[in-house]
Amino acid sequence: MAYIEFKDIDKFYGKNHVLKGINLEIEQGDFVTLLGPSGCGKSTLLRCLAGLEQTSGGQIILDGEDITQKDPKDRNIGMVFQQYSLFPNMTVKENLAFGLKLQKLPADEIEKRVKDSVEMVELIGKENEYPSNLSGGQQQRVALARGIVMRPKVLLLDEPLSAIDAKLRKSLQTSIREIHKELGLTSVFVTHDQDEAMVMSDVIHLFHNGIIEQSGNPVNIYTKPATSFAAGFIGNYNILDKKDMKQLTGKDWSGDVAIRPETLRISREQITTGESYKMQGVILDRVPRGNVLRYKVRTNNVDVHVDVLFRSASMYEIGDTAFMALADHNCVRL
Ligand code: ADP
Ligand code: MG
Fold it and tell me: Which UniProt keywords apply (predicted)?
């Protein structure tokens, strides 16, 4: 049996049907990400699990126990939010000890747990600082420490890195993964950022309008999108309908097809290798995107994006002729 089970979870806000019969299982020890655009219901599901929000229907099981009606404080779930929500009038240490004191743990146990958590989030030396003296990244580390100091069964993280600048975000991503592993936590992470989901997760659940559109490990989700929405949200796919595909390849197709930009091969000479489909086109545009150049190529009135690594690129100019080749196994039927 899975560690966490959502069974037919519905949630309405008035007439707004926000979660539409969610069925989801999470294995113990996994780092699981709910990925999707803003407003699709990710936070709502997380808040239902934490007990901060009541479900309108369905059941939530944690470790074999039905917790659907249980008080949030009895669920043994830690939570970290985008806004750090620290007590401004308390030091780091006091922020961390707060929940433990409410639980009336002995002073030496509190001391030990606070020390362990501070070490884990790499804030040694900051114990007596107030939040206002810390950077955003450091404050989020305190919030993370507060999430784990109670030794929760499950750690929930709702877009915890969205307000943190890009460089610090990487180091916090690493810290979160390490803490997850070291404590043997089961973690549920929410983000709208596909790259972040890819880096962090054992399993990704792609959300769309209150349903789960697709679930899988990062490689699976990236290489085998099941729907147009999945292909559009992840991996910058070219999405072509059957008419476009016919123009591009000369053969008949039964529905939409997704093609990743880096799977189209591009050459100055006619291509004679074994790929199924060969095309000739003209370069319409080119844009640097990180370590690749993204070309827009028009062929038989169909425009596709093609990514080429900078170092391997003899650069094409706009208006140049380009030959392309595409293997059939890189045409993902949606
Ligand atoms: P996400 O986290 O994926 O961005 P949310 O779960 O926050 O999405 O929101 C899903 C939908 O529920 C949105 O349409 C949002 O406006 C609505 N919603 C969220 N919280 C409330 C609330 N407390 N009251 C009314 N509507 C809400
Ligand atoms: Mg949200």
Answer: ATP-binding, Nucleotide-binding, Transport
> Ligand 2: distance of its center to the CA of 43 in Å?
4
Task: Write out pLDDT tens, residues 97-136.
Answer: 999 999 999 999 999 999 999 999 999 999 999 999 999 9
CA dihedral 222, 223, 225, 229 (to 10 degrees): 50
Q: Whose atoms come closest to the Cα of 45: which ligand?
A: 1
pLDDT at 313 over 80: no
* Ligand 1 cavity residues, CB under 6 Å: 13, 16, 18, 36, 38-44
257: closest CA among 194, 325, 332? Answer: 332
pLDDT digits (tens, 9 = 90+) for 198-214: 999 999 999 999 999 99
Best mutation site among 9, 16, 162, 205 for ligand 1 pocket (most ligand atoms within 8 Å of CB): 16
Give the domain ranges of the chain.
4-233, 240-333
Domain range 240-333, CATH class: mainly beta
Q: What is the per-residue pLDDT for 149?
A: 94
Is residue 323 a contact partner of residue 252, using CB atoms and an 8 Å limit?
A: no
- What's the confidence (pLDDT) of residue 213? 96
- What's the whole-model pTM score? 0.90
For residue 22, report the distance from its CA to the centre of ligand 1, in Å.
15
Across the beta sheet with 321-326, the strand order is 265-267, 321-326, 277-289, 292-299, 302-309
| Nearest-atom index, ligand 1, CA of 38 | 4
Task: Classify domain 4-233 at the CATH superfamily level.
Answer: P-loop containing nucleotide triphosphate hydrolases (3.40.50.300)
Closest ligand to C-alpha of residue 82 is 2
CA nearest to 255, candidates 266, 271, 243: 243
